[in-house]
Amino acid sequence: MKYVLVTGGVVSGLGKGVTASSIGVLLKACGLRVTSIKIDPYLNTDAGTMSPFEHGEVFVLDDGGEVDLDLGNYERFLDVTLTRDNNITTGKIYKSVLEKERRGDYLGKTVQVVPHITDAIKDWIESVAVIPVDGKEGPADVCVIELGGTVGDIESMPFIEALRQLSFSVGQDNFCLIHVSLIPVLGVVGEQKTKPTQHSVRELRALGLTPHLLASRSSQAGNILNIHDVPNIWHVPLLLRNQNAHNSILRQLNLLSIATPPDLREWTKMAETYDNLTDSVRIALVGKYVGLTDSYLSVVKALLHACIACSLKPSIDWIAASDLEDDCAEMTPEVHARAWETLKNAACVLVPGGFGDRGVKGMILAAKYARQNKVPYLGICLGMQISVIEFARTVLGMERANSMEFDDSESSRHVVIFMPEGSTTHKGNTMRLGSRRTLLQTRDCITSKLYHNSDYVDERHRHRYEVNPEIIGILEEVGLKFVGKDESGKRMEILELPNHPFYVGVQFHPEFKSRPARPSPLFLGLILAGSGKLETYLNTHGNGS
């Protein structure tokens, strides 16, 4: 196995994830099979309980792993299906070592960071690296490892030591270290300053690792491997190719003899297509965490994939759900008015997933507006549950209709309930997670046609509340249709509103499986409906072709 390690220095947020993904794309374009590992040095076992404001979105894998959003980048860039073990955290490593200690595996030994923690890290990397993630048999040729955080952080020290040991154990021809650093441009003369990078490299070398390549982040072009700011991130693999990064990496890994020249024709076409788009579609994204766009990274990427398939540029209007509420009208009327104006100017509305009751009233108002004004609407997870609450309140007259998540008092009419198998005492890894099968109940619905008349869809889930099965009959009597259910037939997965251009709610998260060349069918449907092209598309493609 060959390893490419990507580390970062000077500051965090330099784009190590995009750099690592782009290196993977480049090596894959050279005919090599590539897998990825992300190391997060925090003590959390996984990203499942972390605030989106602090860490961005929680990306969900097929196997139910709740992982760092960079694994979403890897899956989208490399078109692979990763596992929870492809995300290593300090919490996971210490947990595995402590479990061994309790079993007596180290009997008589003093358990220490070196060698026990470092050995556990190396063993984890080497065992995960050989797991195929591209649907083919046998291990990949190259494993790209991204070390999260910044060199010098105290929590990453055991990983740096383990990776230093790994570089020696696998041999020089099997290990390539790329250090991503910042070259700031100071003053009106635009002088580039390399001193921060010099210090960062010195720190890395003092810890026993010497970079083979430097990838410098800068607003301007410069020397070494320069990853300057680009119009969209799909240009990064092309940028690396143009600077012959692949030759440097392949030479270091002794792979020049078996690699082919990089074939990035499809990637080039994709990047240039996006750059040349002129028409756009306005999408109102009504959410809780709009202050940090990384909170909805996969949603944004899925919208991008769908828009490009429709030859449109996404114009996302971020609306904080609480700004639509009556309380906001009293406290900050100009903010309230602006939010409503933005919503009414949008071609379509999307309410993504989230947890907690903040902003729920605003989401309900957005769902009501979209339903009553025939504006295309897609509700994901919480967004689906919101549409059920709104429909029950407005159409059925259930004024007390609510979710147990927001009001568990007996006076409420719970149209959304806590799932029986959920845990009331633990938050981490206790939801309904990962890929689950949804059976489509009829082919006479928009969702079925968008999925090319498939009898079922396999999509990823992350929820602990569900639509109350006891009220399905009443809702369907007055027009709401549940066109997708789980294999038991009791858990509602997809709802639609007939006689509406596009009003769809899904319990799963379709954004997690969207790919640049294969947009999520539901996101595609939303954009087609928002641009007035859905009916034509369904007539052409909705027959299983």
UniProtKB/TrEMBL annotation:
It is an enzyme of class 6 (ligase). InterPro entries: Class_I_gatase-like, CTP_synthase, CTP_synthase_N, GATASE, GATase1_CTP_Synthase, P-loop_NTPase. It comes from the Eukaryota. The keyword ATP-binding applies. SUPFAM superfamilies: Class I glutamine amidotransferase-like, P-loop containing nucleoside triphosphate hydrolases. Keywords: ATP-binding, Glutamine amidotransferase, Ligase, Nucleotide-binding, Pyrimidine biosynthesis. GO terms for molecular function: ATP binding; CTP synthase activity; identical protein binding. Its EC number is 6.3.4.2. Pathway: Pyrimidine metabolism; CTP biosynthesis via de novo pathway; CTP from UDP: step 2/2. Pfam families: CTP_synth_N, GATase. It catalyses: UTP + L-glutamine + ATP + H2O = CTP + L-glutamate + ADP + phosphate + 2 H(+). Residues 292-527 form the Glutamine amidotransferase domain. Catalyzes the ATP-dependent amination of UTP to CTP with either L-glutamine or ammonia as the source of nitrogen. Belongs to the CTP synthase family. This is CTP synthase. The lineage of its organism: Eukaryota, Viridiplantae, Streptophyta, Embryophyta, Tracheophyta.
